[in-house]
């Protein structure tokens, strides 16, 4: 049976049925004339549906919806065509998945400080099991003496002696026990059993679907030694390496269920994936290049089943013909759209798909390739008219020193691409990258008439180790001018107006916005900093360990990007407020545990003391990832109003 999709065709009423629930999952509007542009708050809303998952039997769908800041888990039974909603309040949900056909695992996170863990407030993950039949809820570790209800590392679903269980690890909160414990939990909350008592340095466990432990990894921050131990009836070390920042890691089980899939550092700095036998011997390389190729694992067997390639979007190549046939069928069904298979049942022909495209801000589908059954589960942004959705295009340009920079350019819909106003929107990290995927903030700027430039500046990942290393010591230097070189390139192509440019970013992107106002001046009309670093030395000092003999890799990672500590003031925006001659908007959430709130408060104070045009907008109960919908909505409105005032779109 041939299955194909056309967004406008679906909206006209043909094709798949659409799930509707008490919260609503309506389709975006399709108008014969151009509808009004969406408001900033329309783009700031949480996705209408997200965290979509499929039960093992392939006949139940669950997903998350949010309304007025309140989250609902929606469970839909495809056989009886009925839905039910579970109100889970204002919890910050990070993941949702099925354990078996009647239980869901829900991971949330909370901000707090615990005596056991050094430093200030941190973000902790909490995992709960929901029984959709009763309904009953139990939280992992909540009833275990000596533990708080947070988990560390991965959570796995196992079939232990014919019964579904969930595994998770954590530390006791007291100082008398340094062990890292791995437990398996009964789904009804009736009990938990210790699977392993690791050391404080135990980082992860690899297991079979039946819960048999195969291997574990250990890293000592003090000796800087990474080791892999194999379960031979007891733990036997099969590999050890002295390393610091760039470490090996075990990704999962190999194809035979005994070997391990490992990532190993290599002499060229790129690293490589191998299968490691129980005696520690390595196979031939699994991929051509580990830069953009990573192994994938079967969700049922836990074994290596293919390779994922990322070039701004994910592409999959599976070893088994039946799995690869699903990809080919999906490519045919989703022709003209980007897609990813996000879930499948025990029968791999039952899948959940996510799609995007030039007229698609994100749609979730259920497909049963055996029967041809297709269900449109819902739309991520149903309030956005498709006439106002625009696409990113990949461009390249040369930096001043000749370095090739790849970037993504988003052009405003319904407007000629000539002499446009521009928003430069650098990513965080900084060792990260932007891709071609839908970005609501970028779309919000574009819908107001702006072109948006997202450069993958030197230091970004995904372009090889040499490109990443080119960013070492260039924080606030060439990493910054890579952005303004992109501005000048677009102006040379007559795409943008060089006199109408602003910069807006979050995290490292927020730092880049402040640097654009104080270090690389004369390029931007205004700057928007969201949760950015302003004082590099203070930030580094806040991460500095109390024990000089114990320097964690996270600290040394920062050091190599920042360069010589004697020159940190040279790249700290707070030390150069006198050079700022443009309006600056600073936004920061008080629950941020990545970049201290004081970084923004102090920068705003320094700018104000220097007589500069600065607006400071703090938010209660907002974190580094902007998960609070009310705060995010106000933030989008504030940012866009600020940009439109100081860098008008027309």
Automatic annotation (TrEMBL):
GO terms for molecular function: aminopeptidase activity; serine-type endopeptidase activity. One of its GO terms (biological process) is proteolysis. This is Dipeptidyl aminopeptidase/acylaminoacyl peptidase. Coiled coil: none annotated. Pfam families: Peptidase_S9 (PF00326). Transmembrane segments: none annotated. InterPro entries: AB_hydrolase_fold, Peptidase_S9_cat, TAT_signal. Residues 1-31 form the signal peptide. It comes from Asticcacaulis taihuensis. Residues 438-646 form the Peptidase S9 prolyl oligopeptidase catalytic domain. It comes from the Bacteria. Keywords: Aminopeptidase, Hydrolase, Protease, Signal.
């Amino acid at each position: 049976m041939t299955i194909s999709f056309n967004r406008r065709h679906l909206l006209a009423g043909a094709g798949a049925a659409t799930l509707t629930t008490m919260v609503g999952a309506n389709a975006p509007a399709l108008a014969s004339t151009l509808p009004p542009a969406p408001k900033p708050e329309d783009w700031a809303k949480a996705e209408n549906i997200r965290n979509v998952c499929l039960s093992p039997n392939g006949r139940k769908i669950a997903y998350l919806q949010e309304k007025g800041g309140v989250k609902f888990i929606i469970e839909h039974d495809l056989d009886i065509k009925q839905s039910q909603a579970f109100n889970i309040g204002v919890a910050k949900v990070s993941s949702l998945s099925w354990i078996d056909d009647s239980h869901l695992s829900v991971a949330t996170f909370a901000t707090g400080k615990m005596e056991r863990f050094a430093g200030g407030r941190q973000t902790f993950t909490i995992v709960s099991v929901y029984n959709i039949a009763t309904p009953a809820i139990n939280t992992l570790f909540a009833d275990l003496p000596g533990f708080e209800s947070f988990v560390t590392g991965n959570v796995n679903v196992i079939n232990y002696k014919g019964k579904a269980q969930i595994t998770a690890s954590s530390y006791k909160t007291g100082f008398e026990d340094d062990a890292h414990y791995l437990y398996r939990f009964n789904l009804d909350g009736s009990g938990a059993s210790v699977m392993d008592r690791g050391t404080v340095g135990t980082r992860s466990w690899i297991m079979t679907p039946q819960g048999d432990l195969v291997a574990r990894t250990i890293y000592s921050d003090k000796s800087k030694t990474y080791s892999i131990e194999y379960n031979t009836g007891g733990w036997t070390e099969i590999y050890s390496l002295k390393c610091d920042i760039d470490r090996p890691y075990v990704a999962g089980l190999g194809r035979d269920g005994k070997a391990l899939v490992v990532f190993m550092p290599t002499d060229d700095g790129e690293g490589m994936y191998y299968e490691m036998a129980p005696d520690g011997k390595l196979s031939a390389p699994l991929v051509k290049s580990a830069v953009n190729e990573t192994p994938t694992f079967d969700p049922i067997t836990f074994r290596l089943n293919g390779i994922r390639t990322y070039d701004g979007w994910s592409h999959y190549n599976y070893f088994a013909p039946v799995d690869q046939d699903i990809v080919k069928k999906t490519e045919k069904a989703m022709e003209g759209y980007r897609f990813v298979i996000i879930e499948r049942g025990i029968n791999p022909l039952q899948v959940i798909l996510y799609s995007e495209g030039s007229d698609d801000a994100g749609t979730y589908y259920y497909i049963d390739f055996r029967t041809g059954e297709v269900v449109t589960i819902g739309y991520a942004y149903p309030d956005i008219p498709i006439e106002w959705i625009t696409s990113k295009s990949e461009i390249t340009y040369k930096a001043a020193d000749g370095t090739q920079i790849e970037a993504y350019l988003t052009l405003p819909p319904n407007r000629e691409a000539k002499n446009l106003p521009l928003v430069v929107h650098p990513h965080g990290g900084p060792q990260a990258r932007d891709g071609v995927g839908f970005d609501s903030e970028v779309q919000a700027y574009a819908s107001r008439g702006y072109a948006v430039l997202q450069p993958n500046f030197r230091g970004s990942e995904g372009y090889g180790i040499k490109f990443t290393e080119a960013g070492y010591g260039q924080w606030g230097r060439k990493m910054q001018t890579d952005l303004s070189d992109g501005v000048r390139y677009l102006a040379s192509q007559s795409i943008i107006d060089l006199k109408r440019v602003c910069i807006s970013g979050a995290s490292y992107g927020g730092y880049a916005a402040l640097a654009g106002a104080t270090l690389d001046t004369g390029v931007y009309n205004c700057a928007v900093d969201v949760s950015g670093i302003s004082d590099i030395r203070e930030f580094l000092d806040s991460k500095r360990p109390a024990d000089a003999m114990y320097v964690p890799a996270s600290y040394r990672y920062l050091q190599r990007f920042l360069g010589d500590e004697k020159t940190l003031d040279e790249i700290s925006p707070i030390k150069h407020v006198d050079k700022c001659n443009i309006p600056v908007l600073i936004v920061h959430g008080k629950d941020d545990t990545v970049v201290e709130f004081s970084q923004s408060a102090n920068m705003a104070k320094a700018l104000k003391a220097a007589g500069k045009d600065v607006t400071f907008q703090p938010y209660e109960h907002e974190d580094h990832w902007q998960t609070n919908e009310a705060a995010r909505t106000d933030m989008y409105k504030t940012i866009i109003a600020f940009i439109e005032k100081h860098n008008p779109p027309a």
